[in-house]
Amino acid sequence: MYIISLPRQRIKFPYDAEAKESLLNILVARQVFIESPCGGRKSCGKCKIKHLGGELSPLSVDEEQSLTQKEIEEGIRLACHVCPAGDLEIDVIDQEENHPVLTGGYVPEYKRHPAIWKKVIEISKPTLADQTPYEELFKKALDLERLPWEVLRRITMGNGTYTAVYNQDQLIGLEKGDTFESLYGVAVDIGTTTVVASLIDLRTGEEVDSEAAINAQKNFGQDVLTRITYVLEHEEQGREQLQSAIVGSLNDMIRTMCVRRQIDPAHIYEVAIAANCTMMHMVLGVDPLPIGKSPYAPIFVAEKEIPARDIGLTALSAFARVYCLPAVSSYIGADIVAGAYVARLHERKDKVLFIDIGTNGEMVLANRGELVSCSCAAGPALEGMNISCGMRAADGAIEDIHFHPETGFALEVIGQKRPLGLCGSGILAVIRELLKHDFINARGNLVKPEQLEAGDPRLPYIELDGKKRMIRISEEPGKLLITQGDIRQVQLAKSAILSGFVALVNASGLSFADLDEVIVAGQFGAHLPVDSLVGTDILPSAVQEKVSYIGNSSKTGAYLALMSLEARQEMSALARSLDYMELSMTDGYERIFVDCSQFKVK
Amino acid sequence: MYIISLPRQRIKFPYDAEAKESLLNILVARQVFIESPCGGRKSCGKCKIKHLGGELSPLSVDEEQSLTQKEIEEGIRLACHVCPAGDLEIDVIDQEENHPVLTGGYVPEYKRHPAIWKKVIEISKPTLADQTPYEELFKKALDLERLPWEVLRRITMGNGTYTAVYNQDQLIGLEKGDTFESLYGVAVDIGTTTVVASLIDLRTGEEVDSEAAINAQKNFGQDVLTRITYVLEHEEQGREQLQSAIVGSLNDMIRTMCVRRQIDPAHIYEVAIAANCTMMHMVLGVDPLPIGKSPYAPIFVAEKEIPARDIGLTALSAFARVYCLPAVSSYIGADIVAGAYVARLHERKDKVLFIDIGTNGEMVLANRGELVSCSCAAGPALEGMNISCGMRAADGAIEDIHFHPETGFALEVIGQKRPLGLCGSGILAVIRELLKHDFINARGNLVKPEQLEAGDPRLPYIELDGKKRMIRISEEPGKLLITQGDIRQVQLAKSAILSGFVALVNASGLSFADLDEVIVAGQFGAHLPVDSLVGTDILPSAVQEKVSYIGNSSKTGAYLALMSLEARQEMSALARSLDYMELSMTDGYERIFVDCSQFKVK
């Protein structure tokens, strides 16, 4: 194992040099995203990195053509062309000033124009002869007709120098002294399972720190419907519990980053949130019940801009704001709008499918700028839940697997530890291998041992529990067994996702072959290799060569909302123009679903 | 003792028929205020009451002329003319529909136009084919471009019928079902010592209930400066403690009234508050420190309209509002603006002095519509504090006293109980009698027993403690002693008030004789009879015949702010036009104060 380090980004990780993968793929797999519009197909010449030290493959002819002489002298290389073979030290090149690297997601270009800004003012001091109230002094100094109550209530006497904090054209706070240099925001993606947050310097766009946590709402149910049911059963109290669970997680994460970076939380003025529609209702404390019940009309989808204290976000400035990105419907949330925007779907002239794979599978088809979306309930199988030996992607989780007739199952385990279970990518890999080697047939049924000839290399891995057949993927008897039930769980997930895909493509009068690109989004999706997605028939083989990964585009959308009012407007316009197809109302959808439940590939 | 009852107002109280006082005076002393613009001088013919039962003096010639034949047949009488002589049952006549009786205060005419109003709407229900979010349905039904966050966050699914609650043109809430008939507000006067609140039906202006309580901030200090010092020493925590003390009192009072009248607190939508400037800062949680420190510039004086939840007022609708009446300066608060407005000072064409006597004495001189105010620190002596045998106006408190050379001190005790101490009015009465009978001289010094001849009727009441002289007002030796220190406390209070009065009149180029009326405001002031105020030289004898009482005009101002947007506007205009004279900056004020410290009258 060798190490790749990115000293400027404070990133360091081990990689497998024997896999002979391109540096681009290695970086993307580790969620270090750099611009690569061609998706690694060596055609765009944009994925520039700077070689600082260590071994690299020699300059290719393509690189010599794409790079200037100056770039070559400076050690610039194209990440899709180079193949590291030892310890390596590199720097990721920002394409321009406004194009920083964000942990876990590719950031497109944007116009830097944050909603929050500051101005330093001086006020005159009252005297016995002129007892003008402070409110009037500030109104005069700030040229305002009215001092907002939220500002007034927090005024305290100072030495005359104050810093006014604005949200667009609205004064939101007054701070004693000159605090001009300290201006931070937080970009947040709230997933049903995971929450990630980045602390951003709003003056520069720099990501100061990032943090991830398990969504504390998991105590109230693993999926959104269970949590909505909890609210139904516990009414307002339940709503408050779910809200304070997630808000508590956010407060904790913000505090952790502030302590680590020695930043005063009072200088954080905005939190931008992208999330699915249920999470957005819950973090705001809005009634989620309509989302869980036909006809699935949510309370709101439009963007929201509200005081952070209103929802209990207190680990920041007392007058901080929350900006919530817009959604489309109950099952196409702000996370998908953010993703579609980060993927520039609204600007694409070709045909692109954007897909976010998780407990719900959401997808957007962009057909020459026309956007249609749909959503399907994949269930948590692909994330390692409801699988008999499923587990989270932690040390001991099998993340990939290969079956060789001679040597049996070869496992790749996170942390090179003793295998404990299967994480999401491991589960897909198992199903892929079981299909490839005919352990299961197109209907998803496990092969019966009596159908196999003696000496068949698969026989030793089939275990029986009465009439129940199971596949053992470990060498230890009775350990790491794949059941028929596990296979059904994956089959259901894949039927749901693929049938949505088919329904969308059908409705647009397209075929899979017409698609120019399939963009896989999400932190989770980034861990699902193309060969597993296609090998398990979640994505049809027709798109195998067209898959690219965009990372956590939900958080990136939140980042853009923090940094650019223009991005906010464009995301709102995108949300309004994005059509939603309710699959349960789509003619012939049931037949599509049944068709898609078959494993077609080998 | 006979009983007067007002069945419609649910008021019943005993009175002394032998005092042969006019019914008007008896009612006013009990804080049942009826319109009497002439102040009981039998000239306006407005103080109409309806005689329902019991003995009354016969119809006077004046009454025959003032009343119509129909009124006489209905039993209408003028309260200033009739003299009750036994048990009596009456009704107070509202001059017109918009002219209700408010506990403890006279209510002038006003235009009924509350800020809060309701509208019932129906929304269409979403379907699977049309999953329009609820936010959009409400925007359409209410013809709004934006649904305020405060409204949206509280939306829950209903059967399609909702009641929209507005604050002027702003939607503030949506209630499930039709709640049109339930619309309440609360008018509050926060005094440093006492808090009073009236629950008002906003549809009719009717006072549904009223409640009084001790300001729970008393635990942090009796006067405003001690409480400000507490905040100085305990910083933000102290500010929060003082805020939650007073807000807690308000929540308790509102709950008590709601339980008693079986009204759902969720149907209370507005609380209008009048208070002095320090109390207003403290109830809103705004920094009061600048008020306590030269140059005494407050944070704010302008009217405020804010969410009730922001200050912790929770015993009412979650989206209720608080309206705070405007003030003039740190020491001329919204209570005085309210009083000046209720007394119609801005409309008076003559010369009127308005005075509110309490721990602080605030006064407004209206000189043909020009209003000037000043404030003086009277100290708590007139409210029975810092007096060796002082107490609150409760059972056992001496409220009046008379000295007869033959029979000694005759005490009037609240509740006809054994005398325990002196309340404010009792203290003034004592000083009045001591002055009248030369127990003390013009400089406030107690007479020495050696200066008196043997057999002087005063001698038995002078007690000596070493060289210290004291006046015993009870027959029991050593009980109820008035010390030289007690006299000095009252003397300081009287100097402060009278000197303010003199400074104001001087500054306007007037003399006392020029004044057409002196209006005494405040719950406490209503208990101070003219003969005590003049007899202790707090008010000069030149105004003795011109004194009238207006009751708790601070709460009445809050009531008008609840019931009439026009009254709000007029009060704000009045506050802006009211000049403030800082006594400490006034030439010659020190000399005036020294002059006023002398007791001039006998």
From TrEMBL, chains A, B:
Give the signal peptide, or none.
none
GO MF annotation, one: iron-sulfur cluster binding
Which PROSITE patterns does this chain map to?
A: 2FE2S_FER_2
Domain 2Fe-2S ferredoxin-type, first and last residues per copy: 2-96
Q: What is this protein called?
A: Putative metal-binding protein
